[in-house]
Amino acid sequence: MDRIKVIITNNQKTVKIPTGLRLLIRRCCNAVLVNEEFKGDAEINVSLVDNEEIQILNKKFREKDYATDVLSFPLGENGVYDVNPENGAFQLGDVVISIEKAYEQAGLYGHSLQREVGFLTVHSVLHLLGYDHEQGGIDALRMREKEEEIMLKLGLPRGASYVISE
Question: Which domain CATH number covers 100?
């Protein structure tokens, strides 16, 4: 098994990070790479931010002036990635999750914060690997099928409407 390094940084104080959420994020990153049969060591950076921070990033990089739930910043294209010279791992890119928005959406959709963050992580890592849904059509359908397949393998299916009490 290739090594997967997931560097998680909590850059917000709005939502208390539940025990086990960092492990879940790592499991989700790993599940995507295993499902996609990614070969080689890999690094992914995950930043947890609030709505204000993600809105700034969304405006700066996508010219959309609102808080979104997740942003992906791939460091590769067409399966070619930057390599960390210190350890030889492929640097797949950065995932930025608004934990505040994830908390809001979990309440809206009637499931746990863990399920929402899991989905956002899977979604974003697929973007790092080149999947895109922005244009709709078959690409969006293919990405959605991958998301659901991976979430099912993680034990977090779409119909999961449980809430873990803190």
Answer: 3.40.390.30
Which token pair is 80? 């070619």
Tell me, yes or no, whether 166 lies in a domain: no
Q: Give me 36's structure tokens.
A: 């996609």
Q: Which two tokens stand for residue 23?
A: 């492990």
- Residue 159's pLDDT is 61
C-beta atoms surrounding 34 within 10 Å? 14
Q: Is residue 131 part of a domain?
A: yes
Structure tokens at 161: 């409407």
Terminal-residue alpha carbon distance, the chain = 34
| pLDDT value of residue 163 | 43
SS (H, E, C) 37-59: CCCCCEEEEEEEECHHHHHHHHH
124 occurs within a structural domain: yes
For residue 114, give its domain range.
4-153
The total number of residues shown for the chain amounts to 166
Domain count along the chain: 1
In degrees to the nearest 10, what's the CA dihedral of 29, 69, 141, 7? Answer: -10
**Is residue 162 domain-resident?**
no
| pLDDT-flagged residues of the chain (< 50) | 160-166
7/79 Cα distance (integer angstroms)? 21
Q: Taking a C-beta distance cutoff of 8 angstroms, is the pair 150, 31 a contact? A: yes
Confirm whether pTM is higher than 0.85: yes
